[in-house]
Amino acid sequence: MKIKNLVLEQVHLKHILVLIFSWLVTRILVSFIFDFSESYTGGDGVYYFEVARNILASGSHITDAGKPFIRAPLYSFFVA
Question: Any transmembrane segments, and where (predicted)?
């Protein structure tokens, strides 16, 4: 019985090592294919980074455009 458990553990270990190796190869390929050096400049991210800069600069979350219609609470403080 002990030998059977040992064989099963080795099989699971092989599967885990194959998964880790395939994840590592995929991650390396993605890092070579895509350029992650530029900051993300689309969507809501631009607004949140602007608000975070305002919080750091003046302590206020209000942007130049005035009060926003909808704002996620505390997220801008987390980004800052």
Answer: 12-34
Q: Please compute, for residue 40, the number of CA atoms within 13 A of its CA located in the half-sphere on the CB side.
A: 8
Model confidence band, residue 26 (pLDDT cutoffs 50, 70, 90): very high
Cα angle value 33/48/76 (rounded, 5°): 120
What are the boundaries of each domain within the chain? Answer: 1-37, 39-80
CA angle 20, 26, 30 (to 5 degrees): 145
Buried b (16+ CB within 10 A) or exposed e, 8-46: eeeeeeeeeeeeeeeeeeeeeeeeeeeeeeeeeeeeeee
